[in-house]
Amino acid sequence: MDKVQAYGTFKKVGGHIFRTEARLKWGNSNKKLGLIIMLNPGSSKLLEEQAWNTFVDSDQDSVQINGKLLLDPTMRSVVRILEHSFGNLEGELIIQNLFNLRDSDLSSALDKYKQFFVSRKTSELNSNFPSLINPRYRDVLHTDIDNNYINLFPWVWLAWTVKDVVLLNARRELILNAIPENKIVFKIPKRNASQKRRKELFTYHPNPQKQTDRDRYFKEIVTQMRKGS
């Protein structure tokens, strides 16, 4: 755990904080180890407390800051899983999210997320999803995870939770449709999910709240990664 460092970039727009970039880095290599896609940045923040507090308290709009991140519990779970799966690592794991809003309260984060859209009509989501976002937040709310981007990585780890939300599902569908058929994908799909839905839509988060669930996830995903690597 002491061999890894976390780095990230935050932007503040309209009083909201967005983490627009994050990565876990082992050693000095810039080699891309893989891509993990989770829900949102939660409680992520800079390691340097004074710099972080100055950023948070700033009244400026569109202000940006970057640097080393504090390793939060989710990152620590991710690191533990990867180090047990692949052994000695050298390179970077890129962290992306379904949406970039920093908020550790899931209900609050989802409520805010919905407010960033000028329309939430189900009939428009599949064809016009990106254009439905309020222009003020369009550049920070999502990172474009398209086919070209995904092809930069040897594998993709889907860990974006099993929360069933229409807007999140539309975002998931866009990403899933961009993943090539031959790409290595690691995931633990929701158990007992409806057979009428794509099982990849609902995948478990790498740091469940209950210890028994964390232990189960760890065992299943490490086994999967060792077989797929």
Task: Describe what this molecule looks like in 3D.
- This protein is of the alpha/beta class.
- Helices cover 34% and strands 21% of the residues.
- It contains eight helices and seven strands, in the order βββαβαβααααβαβα.
- The chain has a seven-stranded mixed sheet, with helices on one face.
- α7 links the parallel β6 (155-158) and β7 (184-187).
- The radius of gyration is 17 Å and the shape is globular.
- The two termini are 21 Å apart.
What's the arrangement of secondary structure elements?
Blueprint: E1 4-13, E2 16-26, E3 32-38, H1 49-57, E4 63-68, H2 73-86, E5 91-97, H3 106-115, H4 122-128, H5 138-141, H6 147-150, E6 155-158, H7 166-178, E7 184-187, H8 211-228
Keywords:
229 residues, alpha/beta, 7 strands
Number of strands: 7
Strand order of the largest sheet: 4-1-2-5-3-6-7
Order of helices and strands: EEEHEHEHHHHEHEH
Overall spatial form? globular
Q: Distance between the terminal alpha carbons, to the nearest Å?
A: 21 Å
- Treating each run of at least 4 consecutive H or I residues as one helix, how many helices? 8
Helix content: 25-40%
Low-confidence stretches: none
Cα gyration radius (Å): 17 Å
Indicate the proportion of strand residues. Answer: 15-25%
Mean pLDDT: 92
Largest pleated sheet: 7 strands, mixed
Question: Structural class per helix/strand content?
Answer: alpha/beta
What's this, in brief?
34% of the residues lie in helices and 21% in strands. By secondary structure, the protein is of the alpha/beta class.
